[in-house]
Amino acid sequence: MNVPHVALRDVSKIFTRKPDFAERLAIRLGLPKPPVLRAVDGVSLEVNHGEALGLVGESGCGKSTLGRIVAGVHGKSGGEFRFEGKEEAGWTAEDARRARLDIQMIFQDPMSSLNPRKRIADIIGEAPVVHGMVARADRETAVAELMQEVGLDPGYARRFPHQFSGGQRQRIGIARALAVQPKFLVCDEAVAALDVSIQAQVLNLFMDLRERRGLTYLFISHDLGVIEHLTDRVAIMYLGRIVEVGPTPEIFRKPAHPYTQALLDEAPRVGRGRRVYVPLKGELPSPLAPPPGCRFHTRCPHVMPVCKTTAPDLKPVAPGRIAACHLNDTTEQEE
Description:
This protein has a domain at about 5-115 and about 160-255: P-loop containing nucleotide triphosphate hydrolases (Rossmann fold). It is built from eleven helices and twelve strands. It has helices at about 20-30, 65-70, 95-100, 120-130, 140-150, 165-180, 195-215, 225-230, 250-255, 260-265, 325-335, and strands at about 5-15, 35-45, 50-55, 80-85, 85, 105, 185-190, 215-220, 235-240, 240-245, 315-320, 320-325. Helix 4 (about 120-130) packs across helix 5 (about 140-150), helix 4 (about 120-130) runs parallel beside helix 6 and helix 5 (about 140-150) crosses helix 6. The model has no long low-confidence stretch (mean pLDDT about 90).
């Protein structure tokens, strides 16, 4: 049995705000506490060795928070996190160090993720020297090799981030992540801030690196065209929960959840011809007060009474596919 590269079990992340003096006084008088934000709520997900898993959803659904939990930027509030079969709670100091080096993150805005006061040679070469992967005397050679690998001229190593274009800065971020020889990359909207022509070049770079280095990807994006092009499987997220997971071609061919269908209907795709897009009715509920039952029922065109009271479980709907929708239960009963 193959052990997943990364496995999440009922993982949650809660953000709270420390009450000010007036709020503390109000709480003492019996008034409600400030609301808490459940950005990630009971997510279970697996990413297998060598695969590219896409994570898709509207802004505010919690996908970036989930990616940061995987990368170790945020600590989880509850649940289990396993890396190569080992649960985080049982990690030794060396296990933790290895996991945090093996999992690296590439951020959406390359400029804000790079230190503007450091030269590129220092940005890329600092971590491998600190962690003993490269001798200080060999740092210049290692940086040059990494820059060449991501398509940058090593002669620019003494420049600062502001002297590069957006696409070049993203390549610098990729080189910095690769410098510690990771096995798993979390890419959070890694091409969203780039021009379309540059996006294609960076996506091709990701594909080449995956083949050459045997990398595993968690690719977070709202661009379904990017997800369809790059990933093997897709997980759809809505208001902090996973609503559907399956192979990318199958998800795009026949989605099992109404929310997935709505996302695909909105995305422009070649060969679909002219069609009238009917947007979802209703507004996205506040994550501070998600609706009871199925969280999508306030916008779902197929809502049933059970959707308003009972949250659907993620269940198999086809080989290798799971979805959380009461419509699938109705279909099973009819069959």
